[in-house]
Write a structure and sequence with these properties.
By secondary structure, the chain is mainly β. Helices cover about 0% and strands about 45% of the residues. A hairpin with a 2-residue loop joins strand 8 and strand 9. One of its GO terms (molecular function) is calcium ion binding.
């Protein structure tokens, strides 16, 4: 498993394996590639601006939020904007999933919520 840490306004492309992406700062753009990828869209701080995930796979990939006090999936706000899913918590945008319908996201698409 490859691990990527992005600091803000960065771009990353995963490979064919299972990758982990820790998205810090804000406005990172990530393509996970093939495999079962994990995207940490918030890590103890609200991003300065929403991250963008270009190829989130509803069947294989996971989103993780840690250190914000998210107690459950139901505390997240999911909406559709221009054909993309927007994920927010406490009126703060965390990530945009390109080409994903927000109505398709379930608790199973999230690993760590805290």
């Amino acid at each position: 498993m490859s691990t990527f840490t992005l600091g803000g306004d960065d771009r990353a492309f995963g490979g064919t394996g299972n990758d982990r992406f820790f998205l810090l700062g804000g406005n990172n753009v990530v393509t996970g590639g093939e495999g079962e990828d994990q995207f940490w869209i918030a890590n103890a701080e609200i991003p300065e601006s929403a991250h963008t995930i270009t190829d989130f796979d509803l069947e294989d990939d996971l989103l993780n939020i840690e250190g914000l006090g998210v107690g459950s999936f139901n505390e997240l706000t999911l909406s559709n904007e221009d054909g993309n899913a927007l994920i927010a918590f406490d009126n703060n945008e965390l990530a945009t999933l390109l080409g994903v319908n927000a109505d398709s996201l379930t608790a199973d698409n999230f690993g760590v919520l805290s």
